[in-house]
Write the structure tokens for this entry.
Amino acid sequence: MKLFLSAAAALMVASAAQAAPPPAEAFGRLPDIEDIDMSPNGRRIAILGGPDGKRGVTVATIDDADLPNFPIGDIEPVSLLWAGDDHVIARIATWRKIDARHNYRFERNLSINPSTKSMVWLLNNDEASIYLTEQPIMQVVPGPPLRLVVRGLVFSQGPSSSLNTKLERKGVDSPFLAALWNVDPVTGRGRLLERGTYDTVSWRVGMDGAPRLRVDIDELNHKFTLLGRPIGGGNYFVVTTGPLDTIERFHGFSDPEDAVYLMDGDQLTRRNLTTGVVEPVGKPDPRHPYISYDPNTDAPVTLKVGNDVIAWLDKDLEGVHAALQKVFKGRSVYLYDWATDRNRLVINVDGSASPTEWYLFDRTRKELSPLGADYPDLASVALGKLRTFTYKARDGLEIEAFLTMPPGAAAANAKAPLIVLPHGGPQAQDSLDFDFIVQFLATRGYAALQPQFRGSTGYGEAFRLAGRGEWGGKMQTDLLDAVAAAAVSGDIDPNRACIVGASFGGYAAMAGAAFHPDAYRCAAAIAGVSDLGLLLGENVNLYGKDSAAQEQLRVMLGQSTSQKLASTSPAQHAGDIKIPLLLIHGDQDTVVPPEQSEVMVKAMRAANRPVEYVVMVGENHYLTKSATRTQMLKSLEAFLAKNLPVTQ
């Protein structure tokens, strides 16, 4: 069925609220659609998704009823990418247990030819690259011949190699170097394109397949270096270098402009790699906007800050977006992918109270055709309404927050109990889009508060840096100040609040219980960090004590002493907790190991404090299974019903 522009607005009609909220399964299920990608000629669409345990790739030829499906089974789907018009690359992830203590997540690329129905793994002939946890595709080169530039590994050739000049100085005995490979999507076989050094972590590659930028990180001196190469090849030269944080200055590469985008203070600049000419882009902005790029040409399309487009750099696409935004009033329209000629586009449309829906837009016909929805079971459900506000922290810092009220809250004329939901990261941010946890809580009668506390991204460099060393300090009082500010409206009850979070948000939930025990009625941590000293130790085991990753974590924690780490570790202060605590953790979590929750459980029980522990069997850090996502929601619902009932 196809929808014409004049009729598409009818999709916006709100549905009546249901008498009972939908079950946890409706929110906990994985989205039906993980990713959609359009072939360059605009004739085919590949859709990655399907039921949990039966995920697959469906390829649709537009205006053709044939829908071949390629099952990928009970594994984690990640993304799709067309390589030319005849091969679609499905990136998928699997987990492998290396030893008794360590699981690793491996991302690999499966090349699918929908016409011949053949499938082959990329880089299947390289022995070294099987040890790489990720296998990013750096460029699709149209050719001829068509090829993919893929980041892999090569053997380092040992300590005596001329490529190994830093090995002895660094005290490293790595058998591998990062490398670029030219890979044939038909056979999956690769041919070495370029070796990196022991410091190389990534590249940016031109549309012709030539490496143009190289990213190096010196593990010994904790220095970031961006190197460039002019058109036609030649030696690399230093574009910018500095401490690890210097990487934040790098905002991408535009092949058509032969330019690298860099922040210079608060000014975004464009530097031509061949001529060296530098010019400003837009006005200085302390929020440090980032750039989105055209998937077919690598040309810049928008400047964005957080969730908002602040400037369109592509006027053609700006016009398309403006027309569609008029159709889907009250919701956000995203131009997701498009054909090379831009006649056909894949768009998605969503909002805080409306899960994502996907459409094909044909500009010539002025026609919209639905492709699917992430959460079809919620299509007719009344969900919570979100509003944003800003408040001042107790030290004067201005902070944004999102508050989602339960559906029907205004008519109820009663103050809603509050769930404070600090995000993970902490160098991250919440979005204004649909959030399955937020809306699950809202349909249960809770207001959900999401403060964008100091240290969050999307609000400028100074705001992000203000979070250093404040995990257990001002980041926590920012949450308390958000509750006080939200209470001014009169529709939430600040005296009936619990704090719930995942990852860093889980740390914040435990920290709130330990360091501000009178502020909340209960706390729940999903895959949370309970002991900062243990976190640093786990990071050493993974990356090494002098690694760049370890230095970044130390910097984020403010280079804290062992005494400060202990003083801001909730597990060290379980005896100060007065409220019930729920801990939920996946037993295959390699980002925040389950030991972090186990340590907290042990400390709570030793202090005779109320604690519940739920283990999600077979789940990792990212909640990638419908069954365990639903288990988490049901556990949280039961815990809140007992400790923060909606009706008093």
